[in-house]
Amino acid sequence: MTLSRQPALDALAQRLGPQGLWQRPGAEASTGAAPAFDGWPAHEQDWRGRYRGRALAIARPASVDEVVFVVQVCAQAGIPVVPQGGNTSLVGGSVPDETGLQLVLSLQRMNQVFAVDPVNLSMTVQAGCLLATVQESARAQGLLFPLSLAAEGSCTIGGNLATNAGGTQVLRYGTARELCLGLQVVTAQGEVLDQLTALRKNNTGYDLRDLFIGSEGTLGVITAATLRLHPLPRGSATCLLPCTTLAAAVAALTSAREHLDAGLTAFEVMGQLPLQLLQAHAPQVAAPLSAWAGSATLPPWVLLIEHQSATSADMAQQQLTQWLCGPAAGLSGLHTEQAVVAHAEAQAQALWAVREHIPLAEKAEGLMVKHDIGLPTSAIPAFVEAMQQVIPARWPGARIVCFGHLGDGNLHFNVQPPEGQRHAEGMAAFEPEVNALVFDAVCERAGTISAEHGIGALRAQELQRRTSPVALRLMRAIRQSIDPQGVFNPGRLLP
């Protein structure tokens, strides 16, 4: 450790105390601050286990003033800072590299809900608040914060905004960007940009809020946010609907939009293989699939549809049932007579558990090449059909695990390698070729290589290859002007 780093760590330890700065054995500050180690792995390794770094130290500030101090000290000492929320990134966007020279700045202690304004339909929270806490705080006031992810019990609102998280209700409510009214951000110079406005209209200059949302911690540290709330729906109705093709699924989406209108909240799709993995690795969660136990196999595709009503649960149920028995029943490829409709909140939660546990079933199954792609909805059937032909032909034994948010065109299109390649060496050869094949097909159809997970470290090189020189030049100019020293999250997004 150089002299410039040790005095910096000493200063941080003195200001933050033993709970605010974690150091390794042999790196204790001269102040005598005791290092803490139990939580280190959770900060140095990503959720998938793909990236495992080594932090110089872990700073855990409890206030915006402490964040300012950390950033100023690190900038002066030339210590790179990796902002981190719940560390649920799926693209290696929030863990340090292996050099041992980067400081992790965890926002988890900054977890206060400052205020909920039922009249203005807004709430202001610190960035370290869990998404689930934000949802519960809104619900306690009879309001809804609709951002909903499988990781909502562990991801933080700051991370959600830094990655412009999507989730299952984008179809109706939009991404995290649409749900944010204002931000508080600490810049690379250690200044506080305080724009915690609760206004819905503010045409005074560049929209700096949108600049930081989706920037993946490369432009500043989000420390607080003012969020947009919605009236809490009076009731909802949920169903599983089997169908034979993705073309039929897209036709069902078009029909549901027309007949259910703004009440259509979620329209998810799940392929046969991810449901089989769920049956194998989480049979209790897969229990709702027993409705089709009499069939030789599960349906080729299953839709999870949610409809909300501002009136009552009975009204939501009635409207969804009318659509299933009316317009949907007339569509080719839909098996509306086999639909599984939830008749109670517990049943609806069980149906949602099927969708939300698929990533865990994938993890239990083993190594896969993951893709978080976005396509025009009309292009999805042809894309998947082409991949279903090309991938098994190129790699016999490879399997496609496809599911996602059909309502907004976002698919999690994952590929399991042939049995003989399901190890680290096999994946090293398999993954680049599969990525090239899938991303070429996506870009040919005017899609995106990252719909909601972001770029992080995993897709940084791919972004360089598939983004126009003009866009890259502008992005680099923005980053250089805001963080000229490269303090924040080096190697992520723009390497």
From TrEMBL:
<dbReference type="InterPro" id="IPR016164">
    <property type="entry name" value="FAD-linked_Oxase-like_C"/>
</dbReference>
<dbReference type="GO" id="GO:0071949">
    <property type="term" value="F:FAD binding"/>
</dbReference>
<dbReference type="InterPro" id="IPR016169">
    <property type="entry name" value="FAD-bd_PCMH_sub2"/>
</dbReference>
<comment type="similarity">
    <text>Belongs to the FAD-binding oxidoreductase/transferase type 4 family.</text>
</comment>
<dbReference type="InterPro" id="IPR016166">
    <property type="entry name" value="FAD-bd_PCMH"/>
</dbReference>
<protein>
    <submittedName>
        <fullName>FAD-binding oxidoreductase</fullName>
    </submittedName>
</protein>
<dbReference type="InterPro" id="IPR016171">
    <property type="entry name" value="Vanillyl_alc_oxidase_C-sub2"/>
</dbReference>
<dbReference type="GO" id="GO:0022904">
    <property type="term" value="P:respiratory electron transport chain"/>
</dbReference>
<dbReference type="Pfam" id="PF01565">
    <property type="entry name" value="FAD_binding_4"/>
</dbReference>
<dbReference type="InterPro" id="IPR006094">
    <property type="entry name" value="Oxid_FAD_bind_N"/>
</dbReference>
<dbReference type="GO" id="GO:0003824">
    <property type="term" value="F:catalytic activity"/>
</dbReference>
<dbReference type="InterPro" id="IPR004113">
    <property type="entry name" value="FAD-bd_oxidored_4_C"/>
</dbReference>
<dbReference type="InterPro" id="IPR051264">
    <property type="entry name" value="FAD-oxidored/transferase_4"/>
</dbReference>
<dbReference type="InterPro" id="IPR036318">
    <property type="entry name" value="FAD-bd_PCMH-like_sf"/>
</dbReference>
<keyword id="KW-0285">Flavoprotein</keyword>
<dbReference type="Pfam" id="PF02913">
    <property type="entry name" value="FAD-oxidase_C"/>
</dbReference>
<feature type="domain" description="FAD-binding PCMH-type">
    <location>
        <begin position="51"/>
        <end position="232"/>
    </location>
</feature>
<keyword id="KW-0274">FAD</keyword>
